[in-house]
């Protein structure tokens, strides 16, 4: 097997040397005054990236833990929840909501499409009983986005709370928690932030807190409890349990790197990497998975595969022969994913991904791929306006 040279997967992603160095700092006691101060500092830096004045909590565990926690905390018995399902994560949220006691309403579209704000508005008109809308900002397995800004407006007008999985978008795609009326938002450190996979970050609005604290079903005295983080940690200064000190160092470092670069610059970098990859893929003769560019997420490019090869086989082949780690479709379809997340959303990384996918398909006997034309077109976009500087 070729050594691993490039990690272009959809999270966890490669970390910068600065992030790795931060995670190698001496481990201290979590009640050391310097660590306590650091923990609070990280929460404040995270809030800047979420673009919120709300509380942001750092929940120990992969982002999935934070998502389960907020879903359990928000759902009251018999609550009518509208779930927007345009991919694997959205669909999965619907199963959870039902299990936790919600009466589920769902708008589902094929996994290469996006739920339109208009369809949400129409649905709500016919269903005044809906009091929460759940959505996924960036549906990572299929590479599509949801128009959270417009849906947030519609939700507020209707008087519904919003629950948003923004795990793969914050830091790389525009997301304005407060300006878009997003009540409960979850992100992870291991996608566009380029950090460790051990911390979920959660923003909670005052409206959502009133709802959660009044919900007898919301987890309390539990690993899944966000209430514990609010009451024990935020109000009383006690950790509910021991946080991973090294992960917190890593999260602070990636937030620092992002804030020093500037959020706008990071969004531009992710957008350019995505454009380079899309243009190159099309010029090479490949087919993009999302139905249109305007619903494509800039944190990754999803490429539809011909029926004669499958995604896991291609991912394995490309890793073995070329040392490039990509992601497969994770159940969304027969597709490969070249991610542009954090450090991989820069410079030549998209070109590496394109070359590996194009040549990998040629190796498998797929005809009609013009590798040279694809790379040439991608490089032209990369070099536009003076290049990557
Ligand atoms: C990565 C990701 C998560 C976290 O889930 P994993 O299965 O651990 O990767 C949740 N939601 C979205 C949209 C993600 O991209």
Question: Can you give keywords for this protein?
Answer:
alpha/beta; Aspartate Aminotransferase, domain 1; Aspartate Aminotransferase, domain 2; 2 domains; seven-stranded mixed sheet; 14 strands; binds pyridoxal-5'-phosphate
Provide a brief overview of the structure.
43% of the residues lie in helices and 16% in strands. With 389 residues, the protein is α/β, with parallel strands linked by helices.
Structural overview:
This protein has 389 residues and is an alpha/beta fold. It folds into two domains: 6-13 and 263-384, Alpha-Beta Complex (Aspartate Aminotransferase, domain 1), CATH 3.90.1150.10; 17-260, Type I PLP-dependent aspartate aminotransferase-like (Major domain) (Aspartate Aminotransferase, domain 2, 3-Layer(aba) Sandwich), CATH 3.40.640.10. The chain has 13 helices and 14 strands. It has helices spanning 17-23, 33-50, 63-74, 88-99, 117-126, 148-158, 206-213, 226-235, 245-261, 263-284, 311-322, 349-363, 371-383; strands at residues 6-7, 55-60, 80-85, 103-108, 130-136, 138-139, 144-145, 161-165, 184-188, 199-204, 287-288, 300-304, 324-325, 335-339. A seven-stranded mixed beta sheet has the order 2-10-9-8-5-3-4, sandwiched between helices. The chain has a three-stranded antiparallel beta sheet with strand order 11-12-14. Strand 3, helix 4 and strand 4 form a beta-alpha-beta unit. Helix 1 (17-23) packs antiparallel against helix 9 and helix 2 crosses helix 9. The relative contact order is 0.16. The mean pLDDT is 97. The structure holds pyridoxal-5'-phosphate. Pyridoxal-5'-phosphate binds at residues 11, 62-64, 89, 136, 138, 140, 165, 167-168, 188, 191.
């Amino acid at each position: 097997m070729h050594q691993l040279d490039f990690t272009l997967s959809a999270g966890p992603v490669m970390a910068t040397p600065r992030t790795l160095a931060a995670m190698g700092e001496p481990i201290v006691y979590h009640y050391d005054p310097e660590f306590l101060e650091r923990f609070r500092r990280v929460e404040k830096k995270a809030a800047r990236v979420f673009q919120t004045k709300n509380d942001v909590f750092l929940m120990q565990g992969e982002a999935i833990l934070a998502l389960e926690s907020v879903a359990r905390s928000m759902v009251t018995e018999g609550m009518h929840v509208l779930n927007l399902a345009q991919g694997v994560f959205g669909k999965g949220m619907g199963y959870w909501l039902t299990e936790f006691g919600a009466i589920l309403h769902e708008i589902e579209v094929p996994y290469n499409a996006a739920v339109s704000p208009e369809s949400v508005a129409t649905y709500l008109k016919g269903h005044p009983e809906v009091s929460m809308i759940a959505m996924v900002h960036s549906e990572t397995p299929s590479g599509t986005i949801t128009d959270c800004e417009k849906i947030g407006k519609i939700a507020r007008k209707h008087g519904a709370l919003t629950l948003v999985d923004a795990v793969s978008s914050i830091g790389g795609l525009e997301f304005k928690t407060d300006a878009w009326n997003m009540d409960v938002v979850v992100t992870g450190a291991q996608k566009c932030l380029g950090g460790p996979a051990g911390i979920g970050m959660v923003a909670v609005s005052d409206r959502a807190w009133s709802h959660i604290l009044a919900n007898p079903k919301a987890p309390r005295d539990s690993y899944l409890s966000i209430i514990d983080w609010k009451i024990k940690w935020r109000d009383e200064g006690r950790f509910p349990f021991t946080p991973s000190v090294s992960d917190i160092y890593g999260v602070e470092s990636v937030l620092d790197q992002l804030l020093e670069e500037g959020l706008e610059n990071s969004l531009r970098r992710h957008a350019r990497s995505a454009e380079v990859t899309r243009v190159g893929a099309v010029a090479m003769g490949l087919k993009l998975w999302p139905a249109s560019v305007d619903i494509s997420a800039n944190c990754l490019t999803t490429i539809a595969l011909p029926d004669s090869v499958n995604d896991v086989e291609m991912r394995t082949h490309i890793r073995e022969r070329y040392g490039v780690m990509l992601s497969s479709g994770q159940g969304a379809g027969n597709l490969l994913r070249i991610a542009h997340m954090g450090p991989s959303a820069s410079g030549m990384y998209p070109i590496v991904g394109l070359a590996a996918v194009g040549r990998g398909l040629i190796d498998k006997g797929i005809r009609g791929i013009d590798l040279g034309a694809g790379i040439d077109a991608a490089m032209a976009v990369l070099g536009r306006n003076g290049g990557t500087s």
